[in-house]
Amino acid sequence: MIKITDLKADKIKDCRGKWTIEAEINGTKGAAPGGTSKGIYEAKEIDVEDALLLINGSLKEKFMGREFTQESFDNELKKTDESQDFSNIGGNTSTALSFAFFNHGFALKKSSFPFPLVNIFGGGKHGGFSDIQEFLIMPHEAKSFAEAFETSRQFYNAFKSLAEKRGPVGRNIEGAVTANIRQEDVFDMLLKVAEDMPAKIGIDAASSELWNGEKYVYKNSGTELDNGEQVDFMKEIAETYNLFYAEDPFDQDDFTGFSELKKKIGRRTLVCGDDLTVTNAERLKMALDKDAVNAMIVKPNQIGSVTLALKAVEVAKSAGVINVMSHRSGETSDSTIARLAVNWETPIIKIGLADTDIAKMNELVRLWNLAEKPEMAKL
Ligand code: PGA
Ligand code: ZN
User: Fold this and answer.
1) pLDDT tens, 250-262?
2) From ligand 2's centre to the CA of 203, what distance in Å?
């Protein structure tokens, strides 16, 4: 139990330049990240100034002097909100407070570390030409987190050098390389770098952003695919490029598309829900009923608290679904997800190489040094 002796909040900027909430409980901080390609079933955010008034006013009054566990603290936030999706007090308000509470009581409990799944080349709403939002790599042969971090960085540098030979390159909000390169060529370049630096390759198609209600619209490559064609396309790239991971290959309402694809490629590839499952135990159960996923993105701010996120993580674990802890595209130096990933034993953490993500990578390096007999997750 932790007795709340001080509770407050102020605003800080995220990596996109947007204000967000940094809460503080008994001197320990926690900040809410923000999404750019958000799912429609996520917890709702409220205006940051309104959130600060709320936290420094009525929420402070409500919590001060009382004792809580993480669960009772998070339950009290949920009860105070009175809505299904945190639309009253805001998922950003509750996430910042829930993170601060977690960080205050944090003790390292486990010693199995996640493999980083790193955004190397990007596009979509995060900025860049590519229709596919993220081309990801995972240094699966790394023997320590520091080695995995180092390989990711070297992979990024090698990929960037290859891209620079073809023309101008940039960097998007997640720190991924951006350039006007056809998606087939991006895959080939990733495979080329992977010959020297062992890594598995994956994508986040962020398909809810491509879906116009009738078709998946690939603006840059000039194609439009209906549901059946999208299944074929995803299967084809998964097989051609030996993808081990495909996140949101279909729109957030298309459980059937996920399920058809999983039938075709699920033995070798993780078919991962993000907008589909939104870290929500109930949405995950719907996905399980349809046999739609074998991996799930874990973004605590999608559901609004540490306790609610853990609920989804536990449902996933008991169904044999791989949990993938994940950053958002609007991050701060808050490293709560790094600590959650280790204590919840998520075998993968999805992350970028923006400075705000380096903070989380560094936290994992520190935790590795604190852990007794640390080892990389078994995948
Ligand atoms: P975000 O999403 O921009 O909403 O954080 C990233 C993702 O789709 O994984
Ligand atoms: Zn995603």
Assistant:
1) 999 999 999 999 9
2) 9
Any atom of ligand 1 within 6 Å of the Cβ of 210: no
Q: Which two tokens stand for residue 296?
A: 């799930």
What is the C-alpha to C-alpha distance for residues 268 and 287, in angstroms, rounded to an integer?
A: 19
Instruction: Catalogue all structural domains in the chain, each as residue range(s) with its CATH number.
Output: 2-104 (3.30.390.10), 112-376 (3.20.20.120)
Rounded Cα distance, 378 and 357, in Å: 23
**At 226, which amino acid appears?**
D
What HEC string does 39-53 produce?
Answer: CCCCCCCCCHHHHHH
CB contact at 8 A, 341 and 364: yes
Closest ligand relative to 352 C-alpha: 1
Q: Is 215 a catalytic residue?
A: no
Put simply, whether the predicted model's pTM sits higher than 0.90 gets the answer yes
Give yes or no for a contact between 154 and 205, defined as CB atoms under 8 angstroms apart: no
* CA gap 116, 111 in Å, rounded: 15
Q: Is 153 exposed, middle or buried (0-12, 13-18, 19+ CB in 10 A)?
A: middle
Model confidence pLDDT, tens digit, residues 232-281: 999 999 999 999 999 999 999 999 999 999 999 999 999 999 999 999 99
DSSP symbols for 17-78: S-EEEEEEETTEEEE--B-SS--TTSPPP--HHHHHHHIIIIIHHHHTT-EE-HHHHHHHHH
Contact residues for 234 (Cβ-Cβ < 8 A; gap 6+): 205, 246, 249, 261, 265
Q: Is residue 174 annotated as a catalytic residue, yes or no? A: yes
